[in-house]
Amino acid sequence: MRSPLKNTARAQPFEQSQRDAIYRAIDTRRDVRRGYLPEPLSEDVLMRILAAAHNAPSVGLMQPSRFILIRSHEVRSQIHAAFNRANQQAMALYDDERREQYASLKLEGILEAPQNLCVVCDPQTEQGHGLGRQTMPETIVYSTVCAIQNLWLAARAEGIGVGWVSILSPGDLHTILNIPAHVIPVAYLCLGYVDAFDDRPELERAGWEHRRSLQSVIFDETYTPGTKP
Amino acid sequence: MRSPLKNTARAQPFEQSQRDAIYRAIDTRRDVRRGYLPEPLSEDVLMRILAAAHNAPSVGLMQPSRFILIRSHEVRSQIHAAFNRANQQAMALYDDERREQYASLKLEGILEAPQNLCVVCDPQTEQGHGLGRQTMPETIVYSTVCAIQNLWLAARAEGIGVGWVSILSPGDLHTILNIPAHVIPVAYLCLGYVDAFDDRPELERAGWEHRRSLQSVIFDETYTPGTKP
Question: Which long-range CB contacts under 8 A does A203-210 form with residues at least 24 apart?
Fold first, then answer.
């Protein structure tokens, strides 16, 4: 229940060390593609990070996210083959120098990470009674993305690497994982203990791209690039 | 740089009190629709939570998220009118008893919260050189949702309420906020200091919906509701 406070009361922030922990997780989270260790995650920690995902916000409290935990080498091998097909197609779109650079990037850890997790969204669940999803039905799948980000941050705090593999055809995921046609594959994640976390994003370290400034993405009152509040 | 560790080294988790802080933010985060206080956020805290959003993962490091900070009463009033129109349409879809319950719910704090934030996604930015977005281009907008969840958790730790208003027509957001046609409005958020955080989701407390169990959303190896790992 809400505390029976006067209007002048204000909810307090977490204490400084706890706030620091939140920003530490956010700032040091990485998309991990290498350095996975063969030891499987303990059930305890696996359930803690899945609970973090499950406790994410969802439109109308519909909780549309489902988590397919993949540990068999056979299934991971099928996914890895699907990645290779999609990656060859993606690579073909780049010219010369960029293509060479692309080919040198390590973009997934499907077979090295002992756990893979396919996070899917069931947009047809009756839970939530449709609230909030009439005008922006895309908030259903956004709910699942919020769950993924919760898991990612909890995993970082637990010392667990997470890598999001987006170079996969959704059709392959449907087929290999027996996902019904109406259910949306949102993310395919590699999960595992790792030897280390990089201090910078891998794509920045590899010279693929730089990060932009915070001020360049904040606009005042309306969509007005170039201004700032 | 990666530390030159042996293969047997393992990245350590955060210390227990820091891990607790992450789970505290995740478990006590709420979608806040009431109890906003009139005092504006300090610039310091506003920039910290926007930086948390900006530091989210993005496909190919493309950083497509842009943040429109709305503080004027005039703009918020226009958005509030758009909410009212969308909400009347949504309400009309329910029958009798559900409609009455729906009408009693408080679903937004647009005028009470001194700051509103429209988070949008520019899918045409060249940043990232297209990496990772060939097979699943929807990961572009998912990147923006990750940013929103980062902001939501940082805000909770700062004692700041966040409410996601999904009962708005994207067309109204484009018009009122001058958003170019190719840019996607992803979320409209209310932000502010609050008197208190509820200990349960508002829709659960109001009897609209219950939360489901964690075990019911975890599947083993393939999409198999009813099994668990």
Answer: A203/A105, A203/B60, A203/B61, A203/B128, A203/B131, A204/B61, A205/B1, A206/A101, A206/A104, A206/A105, A207/A101, A208/A101, A208/A105, A208/B60, A208/B61, A208/B129, A208/B131, A209/B60, A209/B61, A209/B62, A209/B127, A209/B128, A209/B129, A209/B131
- Cβ–Cβ gap B136/A196 under 8 Å: no
Which of A93, A107, A127 comes nearest B212 by C-beta? A127
A149, B150: Cβ pair inside 8 Å? yes
Residue from the list A48, A170, A223 with its beta carbon closest to the beta carbon of B179:
A223
| Residue-level pLDDT at B134 | 86
A68 near A117, Cβ under 8 Å? yes
pLDDT of A120 higher than 50: yes
* Rounded to 5°, angle at Cα A17 from A11 and A23: 85
Chain B residue numbers with beta carbons less than 8 Å from the beta carbon of A13 are: 157-160
Q: What is the ipTM of this complex?
A: 0.95
Query: From the CA of B6, how many Å to the nearest CA of chain A?
Result: 8
pTM of the model: 0.95
Q: Which residues in chain B are closer than 8 Å to A9, comparing Cβ atoms?
A: 195-196
Q: Report the pLDDT value the prediction gives residue A133, as an integer from 0 to 100.
A: 84
In angstroms, the CA A107 to CA A208 distance is 12
- Nearest beta carbon to residue A135 from set B57, B145, B166: B166
pLDDT tens-place string over residues A17-76: 999 999 999 999 999 999 999 999 999 999 999 999 999 999 999 999 999 999 999 999
Q: Do B26 and A154 touch (CB under 8 A)?
A: yes
Q: Dump pLDDT digits (tens) for A162-177.
A: 999 999 999 999 999 9
The partner residue sitting opposite B10, judged by closest CB among A37, A120, A168, is A37
Chain A residue with the nearest C-alpha to that of B140: A166
Are A132 and B202 spatial neighbours (Cβ–Cβ below 8 Å)? no
Residues of B in contact with A120 (CB under 8 A): 223
Confidence of residue A2 (pLDDT cuts 50, 70, 90): low
> Are the beta carbons of B195 and A9 separated by less than 8 Å?
yes
Tokens of A41: 């995650």
> Which residue stretches of chain B have pLDDT < 70?
1-8, 227-229
